[in-house]
Amino acid sequence: MSARPVTTEDLLPFPLVPEGTTAKDIDDAVSLPMESFPTRRWWIAFSFSLGLLLIFSVNVTITVSQGIGTWGVNNPVGWGFAIVNLVFWIGIGHAGTLISAILFLFRQHWRTAIARFAEAMTLFAVLCAVQFPVLHTGRPWLAIYWMVPYPNHNNLWTNFRSPLEWDVFAISTYGTVSFLFWFLGLIPDLALARDRAKHPLRKFIYGLLSLGWNGSNRAWSHYERAYGLFAAIATPLVLSVHSVISFDFAASIVPGWHTTIFPPYFVAGAILSGFAMVTLVVVLLRKMFNLQHLVTESHLEVMNKIMLATALMVGYAYASEFFVAWYSGVLYEKYVFLNRAMGPYAWGYWSMVTCNVFVPQLLWFKKFRRNPWLMVPIVILVNVGMWFERFVIIVTSLHRDYLPAAWGMYHPTWVDAGLLVGSFGLFFTLVLLFVRFLPTIAVSELKGAVLQKHAGAHHE
Amino acid sequence: MNKPIVEAGTVGLVDDLSGTIPSKPKLGDKLLEGKQEKVGVVGLFDDPHALVKAAEKVRDAGWKQWDCHTPFPVHGLDAAMGLGWSKLPTIALSLGFTGAALALLMQYWMSAVSYPVHIGGKPLFSWPAFVPITFEMFVLFTAAGTVLTGLWMCKLGRWHSPLHDSGVMAEVSSSRFALVLSAKDELWSDGARSLLDEAGCTDVRDLFEDVDDGRIL
User: Fold this and answer.
1) Among A223, A198, A195, which residue's Cα sits nearest to residue A210?
2) Is B181 helix (H, G, I), strand (E, B) or coil?
3) Rounded distance, CA B217 to CA B204, Å?
4) Does B68 touch chain A (CB under 8 A)?
5) What is the mean pLDDT of residues B32-50?
6) B167, closest residue in chain A (CA to CA)
């Protein structure tokens, strides 16, 4: 009977912080970017992001004032960059919810150091994503009329049997829940920021946002249950959101889209691209704000392992699609897949396979999993590949579907390109403002995981 | 009960042991004007383990109006304080199921009653197609319900308390562990702080609050 209660320490694959780190060290390290004047690196990154955001604004203005005739979309390819970008950005967001909810349910305590980054990233990625379908309506000021069921002059309701309408509900719910989850996690850390603040204005703003949190254990008791419940509902939510997005395609009869593998295939791809983006942002931020001792190479290694696993799943899905197309014996299905690999958009297909399946194989080597400068090119390429995946799915299926007489080609315009590039400006501007003004690491959670083990307070 | 009134001009924190009033003003001091009343005592610990032990003592003594304040949720403190399971999930999930029912009802009414569109003899209430939105509304209502119930149950939205004014909160936010005995409790007496002394607390202070305070911050 040597059974000893399982402690937090036992569940950790590696030490979360260096030996001897105190609560004050953690507070100071996390609060530093919020309490000091931004560094040169921050200003350079921020100016660059603002520049991209300006490109975005200009192209949104062009799109809204002149219509989506300025885009490359045509007949037969009615869904171009906008839908590619929508699926891409929603996918990026999924890693955040995965880290904050699913890894929480599995008691993966290493997540504490990156969960906040990842949740914020989810929020900003969803914000980028929703720009595109709204712009795609051509007249965004009427979007509410088309998307939301409200009592209107024509007595018409939306079509609840359409996956596009499911999207409206799925994405708006996802955005709202991600925001609430993120804010819930922020409350105790905002209270810390309030208590550390010297300037009355800072104290007022952080005080207001922290809602008077006082660390009461009666509150913690509810708070922990609330957090657990949030994790439990966010998990099926994140799986449902990309599944519903995949229904936009799977519920149609377009060859290459009408397939049952889509929901899990889309979710795996979303996790791959999301983890790639989290890794990229984390590598840059820990360097920018000297958080290397809190977000260690071991954290990066674990994330890279998840990327490797999902890259294999995605690779399997690519192979499986080809097999099923051949095995189905359907002429159109077979043609669409041959056309993907050997047709006019073969460069897109092979970029996708190279970036998503071949490049991540480097992560089998420990050196690539632990060295930030070796993994940065990999994660960038994975994001390029995941963007091409959506491009390949959307454009190659639409441009040659059934009748050769109705075939066509899709050529994006510079407005399409500007919106894509510009959306990264929107994303990174928000990320940089977030790291400047809010605690980027879940301080209370990290302290709980680190300090309880030193104190040895393990009661059953 | 026994609530001594302290003269105007004192700050939020009085060192009872020495009987002196700290002369150096602390953050938030300038706001404290007018009469103050003693609302309880606070004991500060450096070790969560000691806090849990002290909480067990206070619980066994039969206190009701008291609380612990910690920088992170401490394992075993709920049991040591005698707290039961939070009812929050029950309330939030009830709201969630209400949301799901409303979503299904909305889709039924709009598709089959308000503006029925007959297409190829297909059923108007095609419920499988209504599942995704019903599910999403379940999640949305549960999430909103969790946050609203949480704000209410955690008593958030009250920006001002003696802990904040006295500076105890700043110590707790960082790394200390506080146990507060409220003067509102039936067991309250001037000897309440001896309970904390007995529990091994070396840093016991009185807590004061302004009388008739209308501030929100």
Assistant:
1) A195
2) strand
3) 25
4) yes
5) 76
6) A195
Which one of B29, B52, B81, B86 would you mutate to disrupt binding with A, by most A Cβ within 10 Å of its Cβ? B86
Give the pLDDT mean for B57-86.
84
pLDDT band, very low/low/confident/very high, at B6 (cuts 50, 70, 90): very low
Measured between beta carbons, which residues in chain A are less than 8 angstroms from residue B69? 214-217
Interface test with B, best of A205, A229, A242 (most B CBs within 10 A): A229
B115 neighbourhood in chain A, CB within 8 Å: 155-157
**Residue A334 contacts residue A325 (beta carbons within 8 Å):** yes
Residue with tokens 């709201």: B95
Is residue B12 predicted with pLDDT exceeding 50? no
In the DSSP assignment, the letter for residue A177 is H
Q: Which residues fall within 8 angstroms of residue B77, CB to CB, at 6 or more apart?
A: A217, A220, A459, B48, B51, B52, B55, B68, B70
CA distance A23 to A402: 64
CB contact under 8 A, A214 and B52: no
Per-residue pLDDT at A353: 93
Listed by number, the residues of chain B in 115-144 with a beta carbon closer than 8 Å to a beta carbon of chain A are: 115, 126, 129-130, 132-133, 135-137, 139-140, 142-144
If phi > 0 it is left, if psi is from -120 to 50 it is alpha, else beta; for residue A215 that is: left
> How many structural domains does chain B have?
2
A36-148+160-449: CATH homologous superfamily?
Answer: Formate dehydrogenase/DMSO reductase domain (1.20.1630.10)
Q: A459, B80: Cβ pair inside 8 Å?
A: yes
Is residue B204 one of the residues assigned to a domain? yes
Residue B109's closest CA among B94, B98, B125? B125
Q: How confident is the model at residue A447 (pLDDT cuts 50, 70, 90)?
A: confident
Helix (H) / strand (E) element for B44: namely: strand B36-45
Map out the domains of chain A as residue ranges. Answer: 36-148+160-449
Nearest CA in chain A to B176: A23
Looking at the DSSP bridge assignments, the partners of residue B5 are B37
Contact call for B132 and A240, based on CB within 8 A = yes
Q: Is there a contact between B86 and A225 if contact means CB atoms under 8 Å apart? A: yes
Q: What distance in Å separates the CA atoms of residue B168 and residue A54, rounded to the nearest whole number?
A: 46
Domain interval for residue B55 = 5-81+175-210
Q: Which residues of A89-98 are buried (b: 16+ CB within 10 A; e: fewer)?
A: bbbbbbbbbb
ipTM for the complex?
0.88
B195: CATH: 3.30.70
* Average pLDDT of chain A to the nearest whole number: 87
pLDDT for B51 equals 85
Residues in A closer than 8 angstroms to B75, CB to CB, are 452, 457-459
Instruction: Supply the pLDDT for residue B10.
Output: 45
Name the more confident of B40 and A263. A263
